[in-house]
Write a structure and sequence with these properties.
Elements (H helix, E strand, L loop, with lengths): L16 H12 L8 H5 L5 H28 L6 H9 L1 H34 L6 H19 L1 H28 L19 H12 L15 H37 L4 H10 L1 H26 L1 H7 L19 H19 L4 H30 L14 H19 L3 H12 L2 H8 L10 E2 L6 E2 L2
Antiparallel strand pairs: 1-2
Length: 462
């Protein structure tokens, strides 16, 4: 397929601030909030520390969002982090990130969320031992198809499921804060941990907040991105912190800390105590909607890096075509789905496909997130006189805190994960020939000619 010619379709401003905030919230508010509170409770020593660790996770997320706001406002582009890394370190590092995102980070996240959706659907409509994997594969195909049809269709679906998802989570919050237990059997309390492990608790809290950085991939299609991206990231993060804090207060008020520690499904146990069996149905539907929301939003943003990477690598030119009718990188979305399906097949042979995908992606994700944080310092130093549409507050302390957090999470994701993490690092290593190819092609940013910003048509020196 031919490379895109001059004047070919490009990303344009089709997303409003509301659209982008909705997509961001839909990316983050997923199945994690229905799984991780019991793990967090098992690693804290008191009810106050349980709530504080969620607030602290929200503050860390806000710090990261503010750093991304400066980078995204200064360099709006459909390639998001790929674009930041290319400007800061040159195309070879960006190429390696693109490879990691295409084969590990984003596709692994898609496969993991699809497995979670498949697990719940398989409970309602069992299909045998591989039922979850079959439903996961079908979900990837269906939602990729919707997004290939057009950005408008993918956006409309996202707005609908996110609003339903928030309404369901709000119901859980209201029942928990204002309902009264019916006196039924509570979850069997687990023994309090001999030593608390706030670091482990924070790992799962930040996993639950994960996905906010995907907003960077919307700047190529966000109206007036330099001015609006900071609003998107700040508003989205504040909504997330509010929802998660209230949800955990609701869980704590009904189950207590010991009840949370002994629960396998915290939201279902809480709703059963305040609303009976009907409450369990509400939670099950909420989890399915949450998984649909996260999966669709992850597919929506993920293929943008395929498009950006293909601009710089001749062997991927067929993915450098922006579908003018659908207003999306349709070829990139198809390639993304193919890789995600391969990972689903790999996860199907493990004991827990969702956990395997979390382990597979975590070290590579946090390693590159650390590089993005450092990129903020590199780009400020490289262009000291450049006017920035948005500046991160309390520089340099804010990005330093973000980088320290990423460093710790990188360590923890290697120390506390299984064999799948090594598989993710091995796949990353398999992408190193891309670096050699790029250097031989003379595409390093240090020697490249001024580059045109694909998303906005502005010339910036690399």
């Amino acid at each position: 397929m031919r490379a895109p010619a001059a004047g070919a379709a490009k990303p344009d401003g089709v997303l409003s601030v509301f659209d982008a905030v909705t997509i961001m919230v839909g990316l983050v508010v997923g199945v994690g909030i229905f799984k991780t509170p019991s793990i967090v409770a098992a690693n804290v020593g008191s009810e106050w520390s349980f709530i504080l660790v969620w607030v602290a996770g929200g503050l860390v997320t806000l710090v990261g969002a503010l750093c991304y706001a400066e980078l995204s406002a200064a360099h709006p582009h459909a390639g998001g982090e790929y674009h930041f890394l290319s400007r800061a370190y040159g195309r070879p590092v960006a190429m390696l990130f693109g490879w990691a995102r295409c084969t590990v980070i984003q596709t692994g996240a898609i496969a993991g969320v699809a497995f979670m959706l498949g697990d719940y659907v398989a409970q309602l409509f069992p299909l045998g031992p591989y039922g979850a994997a079959i439903y996961a594969a079908l979900a990837v195909c269906i939602f990729t198809g919707i997004n290939v049809v057009g950005t408008a269709e993918g956006k409309s679906l996202q707005v609908a499921v996110t609003l339903i998802e928030i309404a369901a989570l709000a119901a859980v919050i209201l029942f928990g804060l204002f309902g009264a237990p019916d006196g039924g059997a509570a979850p069997v309390p687990a023994a309090a941990p001999e030593t608390t492990a706030l670091g482990v608790a924070m790992i799962f809290v930040l996993l639950t907040y994960g996905g906010w950085n995907e907003a960077a991939y919307l700047t190529g299609e966000l109206r007036d991105a330099p001015r609006n991206i900071a609003r998107v990231l700040t508003l989205g993060t504040l909504i997330l912190v509010t929802l998660y804090t209230l949800a955990n207060l609701a869980l704590l008020s009904i189950l207590g800390l010991d009840g949370l520690r002994g629960s396998e499904a915290v939201a279902a146990d809480m709703m059963r105590r305040v609303a009976g069996p009907a409450g369990e149905v509400i939670v099950t539907l909420a989890v399915v909607v949450a998984a649909v929301s996260t999966l669709n939003a992850t597919i929506f943003t993920g293929a943008r890096v395929f498009y950006a990477m293909a601009q710089d690598l001749s062997v991927m030119r067929w993915m450098a075509i922006w579908n003018g009718r659908g207003k999306n990188p349709a070829n990139g979305q198809i390639a993304q789905a193919a890789i995600a399906l391969a990972l689903i097949a790999m996860g199907a042979v493990t004991r827990d496909g969702f956990k395997a995908m979390v382990d597979y992606t975590a070290p590579v994700f946090w390693g590159f997130l650390l590089l993005v944080g450092v990129a903020l310092f590199v780009l400020r130093r490289r262009y000291p006189g450049r006017e920035l549409p948005y500046r991160v507050p309390l520089y340099p302390f804010t990005p330093i805190l973000f980088c320290l957090t990423c460093s710790y999470m990188l360590y923890a994701s290697i120390a506390h994960t299984g064999v799948a993490a090594l598989a993710g690092l091995a796949v990353l290593a398999l992408g190193t020939p891309i670096l050699l190819f790029t250097r031989k092609a003379g595409d390093d940013a240090a020697t490249a000619a001024p580059h045109t910003d694909i998303a906005r048509g502005n010339d910036y020196p690399r």
